[in-house]
Specification:
Length: about 100
């Protein structure tokens, strides 16, 4: 069994720079997916996405989520009083142990 060598300073620095780049680009990938970037910044992010599997995967995931959200039917949220009224009606119709009796 071979011993693993500790990474050298060059490798550690390269990994650190890559982590910093991803932290800096995290919001830019989201802005790129939304079409909010223009000019040189858009080209820079597109070039990074084309060679980085992690960022291109994040972009694909964002596209899938956005597509899924567009396909779901839009519903207005229920008002709190109507939710409480339905819950109360359910409790009356289906009494549990120790619940109201008819």
């Amino acid at each position: 069994m071979r011993k693993r060598r500790a990474p050298g300073p060059e490798q550690m620095w390269a990994e650190c720079r890559e982590r910093l780049r991803h932290l800096r680009l995290r919001g830019d990938v989201e802005a790129y997916a939304d079409g909010e970037l223009t000019g040189a910044r858009r080209a820079e992010v597109a070039a990074h996405i084309s060679r980085c599997w992690a960022c291109s995967g994040s972009l694909q995931l964002l596209h899938l989520i956005k597509t899924s959200l567009r396909r779901t039917p839009r519903r207005a949220p229920s008002s709190l009083p109507s939710v409480r009224l339905r819950r109360y009606a359910h409790r009356i119709a289906h009494p549990g142990p120790g619940g109201p009796t008819r």
